[in-house]
Amino acid sequence: MMFPVRCFTCGAPIGHLWEEFKKRVEVGEDPGKVLDELGIKRYCCRRMFLSHVEISYEILNFPKVS
Amino acid sequence: MEINVLEKNPLKLRLYIKNIPLHILNSVRRVMIAEVPTMAIDSVVFTMNSSVFYDEYIAHRLGLIPLTSEKALEKYKSPEECREAADRGLFTEDCFVKLDLEGKGTGEGLVTLYSGDLKTSDPDVRPVYDKIPIVLLANNQEIRLEAYARLGRGKEHAKWSPVSVATHKYVPLIHIREELCKGEECRKCIEICPKDIFELKNGKLAIKQDKILDCTLCRICEEACPYNAIRINWKENEYILTIESTGALPPKKILLEAIKILENKIDDFIESLKREGVVK
């Protein structure tokens, strides 16, 4: 689904950083460096970014029918 | 008691505290996590939702958004009173802040609604971050909702906890027995330390003084040393307290509130002891 508002493990807010992260990684920057610059230090928060799959774009094609 | 500030910025506070008993520091830490109240969205009323996301999913995302709470602590009623009001469905103004969200998908591409699109009824209580995505809307999908935020405590739900990290750790005491250490020839502890706190100075093993607090007391150096030259210990009654805020309250305020709450709890305890006649 969409990128989580908070880190599952520590509860630090991370949602607001997602779009910048995505934009910069798509241009070809190194994900690890981008995370460092965004101030994401702990590995629990870092894996939230690195392992996220934006599945919501696919779900959008199947709207509710009721 | 002696306190040094190791690090201080709007979201993080690191204190080096000397001469404090561990159980007192731990009580303060636990109160910070579970008892210091903050604002968070608790009830959401949907009047329209034709997006692909379930109401519950959106409500959950809304709940996790940190809201600024510094002024709200004095302005609104206590978490216990407001919880009761919410259970009875009374969204009164002395307890609740109303946040409205509205949006409709247009023909051109996807529309993302952000936390910054929430319209709050009280400017003192607003999302800390404006760029948290809440929902995605495709063409003709529409959302209209009213969210009600109230004060709450971390023990009720983690979304009300003002801290993401609140820890204390021991201060390391690293003892090198120079008569046993082979220095230059060995280097095993220098290479294995995950925090890189050892170095060689004039052929002798030394500790990087600016990095000694990074030591996690993992004792991997003790194990790696073939000559038993390193002993890791910790200082008695000296601790490092780390607070990392979610943004709802500044770290300083969290610490002061926690101490106030703990003080009230102990006062209550004495009161009930007196009432029951255990003490006079």
The CATH topology of the domain at 15-59 in chain A? Arc Repressor Mutant, subunit A
CATH topology of the largest domain in chain B: RNA Polymerase Alpha Subunit, Chain A, domain 2
Order of strands, main sheet of chain B, comes to: 1-2-12-9
Order of helices and strands of chain B: EEHEHHHEEEEEEHEEHEH
CATH architectural type of the domain at 15-59 in chain A? Orthogonal Bundle
In short:
Helices cover 44% and strands 0% of the residues of chain A. With 66 residues, chain A is mainly alpha-helical. Chain B contains seven helices and twelve strands.
SSE inventory with pairings:
The complex is a heterodimer of chains A (66) and B (280).
Chain A: H1 18-26, H2 31-38, H3 43-50, H4 56-59
Chain B: E1 2-9, E2 12-18, H1 22-34, E3 38-49, H2 55-64, H3 72-75, H4 79-87, E4 97-104, E5 111-114, E6 119-120, E7 133-137, E8 142-152, E9 163-176, H5 188-192, E10 198-201, E11 204-207, H6 220-224, E12 230-245, H7 251-275
Antiparallel strand pairs in B: 1-2, 2-12, 3-8, 4-6, 4-8, 5-7, 9-12, 10-11
Helix pairs in contact in B: 1-7
Description of the molecule:
Chain A is mainly alpha-helical and 66 residues long. Chain A has a domain of 45 residues: Homeodomain-like (Arc Repressor Mutant, subunit A), CATH 1.10.10. Chain A contains four helices and no strands. Chain A starts with 17 loop residues before the first helix and ends in a 7-residue tail after the last helix. Chain B is of the alpha+beta class. In chain B, strands 1-2-12-9 form a four-stranded antiparallel beta sheet. In chain B, strand 10 and strand 11 form a beta hairpin. In chain B, helix 1 crosses helix 7. The model of chain B has no long low-confidence stretch (mean pLDDT 93). Chains A and B meet through helix 4 of A and helix 2 and strand 7 of B.
